[in-house]
Structures are given as C-alpha cells and as structure tokens.
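Question (not urgent): is this output format expected?
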Amino acid sequence: MKRAMIVPVLSFCIGLLTVGAHATVDWQSSQTIQIGKKLLDIAVTPDGRWTFALTPDGDVLIYSAAGKLEDTLHVGGGFDGIACSANGDRIYLSNRAAGRLQIVEIEFVKEIDTTGSPFLGPPGAPVTIVVFSEFQ
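Got this back:
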C-alpha cells in the first residue's frame, strides 16, 4: 500500500520540475565582422582573443578580439574543418572525407619600436624574447 502512494507522489514532483523548465533568454549582437568571403568553418580560442576563419580557397583568416584582420595564412584547399588550441598557438585543419588532419603551429610576431634606443649589433637582427614562468 505504501508503494502505490510513492509512485503518484513521485510523478507529481517530476511534473512540477518540468512545468517551470521554460526560460526566456535575453540576447544582443555584440559585434559583426564583415569577412567578405565564404566560410567553411570557424574556431575561437576559449578566451576570445583569436578567431580563425577557414575559407574554401584554403585561407585561414586570423582576427583579433576587436574584429581586426591580423593575418591570412594560405594553407591550401581540401580542408573542411578547423579547431584551435586553448592559447591559439596551434590550429587543426581537417579533411573528413580523406581522413586527414593537419596541425599548424603559429607564432605571433610582435613589432617592438626601438627608435632612439641604444643597441649593440646589426639594427635588423632578429630578437627572441623568452619568458620563464617556473623557477625552482
């Protein structure tokens, strides 16, 4: 007799949970980027810093968070999907039909204005800055 009472009460409780499950979502468009080309796929870093757009021409367009086109990489045709690593230093291009995945490593080069700064060596020599974050 106690079991017969549990089932209707449980059904009533589940019914109460689903009745209020409908929600209203407020939204607004925060930014529109006019690319001017057809797109196959896009990938965005989790922090939103970089957006990678794959075109049918085999170009990867790299946009900053501000929506500015920073660079274009020509990776060749045949790709139909793109993904990126968490910090945007790698992109993964896929061709699902051919079962192919290509990994492209990216290094963002930043220009540093050294006008008027003292220097030793040739003025156009490349400079690599290394950041050590773990000291023991």
